[in-house]
Structures are given as structure tokens and as C-alpha cells.
Amino acid sequence: MTLTLEQEKEARQFLSDLRQEIKNHAGVGHSILGRMKTDPRSRFDFKVLAGQHFPLVGNFCAYMELLLINAPDSEAKCWLAKVLVDEYGERSDGEDHAEHYKKFMHAAGIKPGEEDIIPLHPEVVNFIREHYRVATEEPFLVGLGALGPGHEWSIPAMFELAVAGLRKAGFSEEEIGYWTLHLEQDQDHGAWLEEALVKYCLEPANRELIRRGALLSLDARERFWWGVTDKIASESTKKNLPPGVTATSSEGQLTLRELRAKWHVEARLKE
Amino acid sequence: MAVSNLMVAAFGGPTEECCGKHAECPGQAFCFVNGIFGDNPARRARVDEVVEHYKHLGGFSKFNEITQAQAEAVQAELRKRGYDLKLTVGYDHWLPHIADQIEKVDGDFVVLVMAPHQSSISWDAYLRRVSEGLDKLDESSRPKWVGVVDPFWNKPGFVDALAERIKAAAKAIDADLTNSATGLVLSAHAVPMPVVKTSKYVEQIKETAELVASKVGATNWMVGYQSAPSDSKIDWTTPYLDRVIEELKEGGAQKIVAAPIGFLCDNVEVLYDLGVEGKQKADELGVPFAAAEAVNTHPAFIKQLADNVEAKLKELAVAS
Predict the structure, then answer these.
(1) Whole-prediction pTM
(2) Complex prediction ipTM
(3) Does A40 touch chain B (CB under 8 A)?
(4) Is residue B150 part of a domain?
(5) SS (H, E, C) chain B
């Protein structure tokens, strides 16, 4: 398809506005991230964060693979495939991102083998559930909005803040390799994405689908960060005090292992 | 176990003291609010919005002054009862910080959390700061944290103090709380729903509200949540204060009294979000409105706090 200059200008303006909207979203600018620069977090705080964040890292490829099934053309498939190849580990010494993340988890104090037996805040589970839903049940462009702009344009901004906090907490560059890798790779993914998205942004209805997907993902992200905030405060309290003193309860919270055992995702080929 | 120290932990508010985080001071209110939201351009609009609330009220907050007065009054009440405790007060978001104050504690200590209702972002967050302070000290100089004073959302002294504040506000606009033509708004800070999922915050607010409404004989009352950040895209506890004022008016209220049951002192959220914005909403609807003072240093409230501290000290003494 050949775009007229006017069409391309309009599409790129939409994408530029969407980038700005994502950058200013309260999920991207959540206080837990913004405060890392001025109100340093401890290694224990990052241990809690790592346990809650790991399930998101471990499921991202699956959302993308599900979305790929229904990508409408080869251009969209190519973008998804390029990102997936990175996620599988092509530019990170052959280690997929979940394996890479485990190195950080171990540095933060989570023992090998215990990565998936940590009780998860309900918003961690909801984040994963929402992204499987979007990837399998919503129109392709909503899924693309969630996994494309909703992730690739928000992660560099969020991780930049997180990396500042990780460094303040004393993690070495090697220990935080997962985070710094994403600062670079997601800039690339974001740029590839912009090129892949332009042609889908000609119709106002399509633009709205992409925007809706991005915002669904970021709303889930804002809830996720509140869940992490909640977990850090309650786990810190439990660490030093007898049971019953914390304001919170983790009763009924599932671990990633339990979640995997009971989760059923249905993927359908759409016309 | 001889408990010799009482640590009082609260949210905090900006005073004239400089936080020292910026080479050139952008104003204490800015530093305070920016510190809460994080130094992040994404939230700058919301930070500026809240800073304006502080500027409207003079640029500072009476939070720390009132909390210090509450803590000293509790200490004095306990002294009358034979407990001589060294007092240390610290704040989550302003000077002196809870974590820094821990080094001033010089023996076994209990913590009094100045939050009437429990959630991770108030109750647990302040306790986390205590842990942070302890972690900074060598084991040899680390005081022993032996307990946390029980919460007080449903305790009679807290309820009585709130009821008296409400009656005083009603009197100011000649409102009869027992008449359904007077609407009573019982206000608490909105909390994001992900945080509500793990705590009893909403249930505790509801219980306080029922007890207070019953105490003043109110027949037409509602809980209203306030001060949710305008830029958040997710659900916070509802109904919001402005909607509650509208609903009471729609339901026939001819006068409205509002009381900050989720706050312990006249901080900026009470004075501005409830006192100024709540009144603006009522003015738009043409309803006379009065906001009650927070419990502050009401004697019944202070006595209740002292009762709770004393109960914890006795419990610890028995346990040892």
C-alpha cells in the first residue's frame, strides 16, 4: 500500500500523540517508580518487586505468540516475530528474557527454584489475565496496541526510573542486565513498531482500536504497580514483626506455579 | 520487658524546614508533593495541582505541628498513669523522617501508627520506615522494636471525639443531625482498589461511619471518599465526596455537614479538599455546608490513644 503524504502525516501525528499519552499515563509514572530516584529502595524491596514482576516477564512471549496467530498480514507478523526473536534471546546470549530475569531475582535474594512459588498480588494475576484476554478475544489492533505501544513505548520510561533505583540499592551492572538490556532493545522495538503501525493508523476507527489496546494495557500496569507497592509495604512489615501486625492479608493469593497449573487459554483462529 | 520509648509514626506535611533535596529550593510544598508522586515529568501536572492547594492555604501544613501536639498529649496522659516513656515522632514524607528518628530511640519501643484505618499505603508504609531505620543501624546500637499499638477505628474515644466535632459543625449552620433534611458526609481518603483488595480499609471506614452516625443520631448520612489523584486511570474507592454531596442534595438534604473521619488532623486534604472544594460543591447546589474540624487534640481522642498504648504495654508485660 502506498500512503499519500497527507495520510502518512496524519498517522504519524496520531502515533506521536499516543506516545505522549503513554508517557504521561499514571501507570508509567507510578509513584513507586518516580520515587526511586529520591527515596531509595532497599534490596529487600527489589526482592519483593522481582517476585511480583517475574510472572509478567515470563508470560510476555505467550501473549505475543497468540497475537501472531491472528496477525492480518506479513508486515505485522514480521514485527511480532522480530520482537519475539529478541525475547527468545537472540540478542542476550541465547538466554530468553525469563531466564535472564532470574539472574536478577537471585541477586535480589530469591533462591533458585523458588521463583514461581511466591504468592502473587491479585493485580499481578489480573495483569496477565487481561493481556491473554486482549491477545485472544479483542480485535487484532487492540492486541497490537496493548503489546506494541502499551509495552514497547512504556517500558523504556518505566525501566529508566527502575534502573536508577536499582543502582541506588547497590545492584551491579551485571545483576541488572535484564533491565538495562530493555532500555536498549525496547527503543529498537518501539522504532520498528512505529513503522509497522503507520499503515494501520489511516482510519480513525483503527486508530481508536490501537489506542484502546494501549490504554487497557497501561491501566492494568497502573493496577500492577499499586499491587507491587502494596506487597512491598506488607512484606517489609511481616519481615520484622509478628503475624497480625500488618494491615494486609495474602490469604488466597496464588503462586505462579499454581496459576500455570490451573490456567487455560483458548486461542481461536479468526477469519 | 521494660518498654521505655514510644515512637509515633505519621504521614507528615511540609513545614518551613528545608528538605535539602534541591540545590535551589522550589518551595517546601513542591518538594513534599513531588516526593510523594516521585520526581517524574509524567506526574508533574498532578503535582502542580496539589501544590496549588497548599499555596491556597499559605504554602505549608499544620500536620506535623498537630501530630507533635497529639503525641506530647498522649505522653503526658501516660505519665499521669505512671508510664514514663521517651517520645520520638517521625514522618513518612517529611522531616524528621521516621527512619532517621529511630537512632534517637534508646531502648525497647512500641510504635503508635497515626492512621485510623489500615491499608498498606499508610499503616504498613509507616511501619516499613521503622524497619528501614532499624536496618540502617549496627546491631549493637539497634533499639528493640517490641510491638505496635493496636488500631483504633472503632474505639469509643475516637468515635466520641468525631461526634463532638460533628455536633459543633452542625451547630454552626443550625443543622439538626437527627432530621433527614440534614445530610452528613463522613469523609475518608480514597484508596486505589488494588490496595483495598488486601486490607480491611473499606470495612473499617464503614464501621467508624456507622458508629459515628449512630452516636450523633444521624439518619441521612453517607461515606464519601476524597483526594484521589485526578490523573489516575484506575478505580479508587467510591463514591467520591462531590458525588455524595450531590446525592444528599438530590435526596432532599437542605443542609450538609461533612466530617473527616479518615483523617486525624486538619491537614491540607481536610482544609482544602473537604473544606474548600466540598464547600464549593455545596455552594453550587445552593446548600448550606459546614466542615467539621478533625479530631486533632480532642481530649477523648488523646485518652483513647493513651488507652491503646497502655493496653499494649500491659500485654507486653504479661507476655514477658
Answers:
(1) 0.96
(2) 0.95
(3) no
(4) no
(5) CCCCEEEEEECCCCCCCCCCCCCCCCCHHHHHHHHHHCCCHHHHHHHHHHHHHHHHCCCCCCHHHHHHHHHHHHHHHHHHCCCCCEEEEEECCCCCEHHHHHHHCCCCEEEEECCCCCCHHHHHHHHHHHHHHHHHCCHHHCCCEEEECCCCCCCHHHHHHHHHHHHHHHHHCCCCCCCCCEEEEEEEECCEHHHHCCECHHHHHHHHHHHHHHHHCCCCEEEEEECCCCCCCCCECCCEHHHHHHHHHHCCCCEEEEEECCCCCCCHHHHHHHHHHHHHHHHHHCCCEEECCCCCCCHHHHHHHHHHHHHHHHHHHHHC
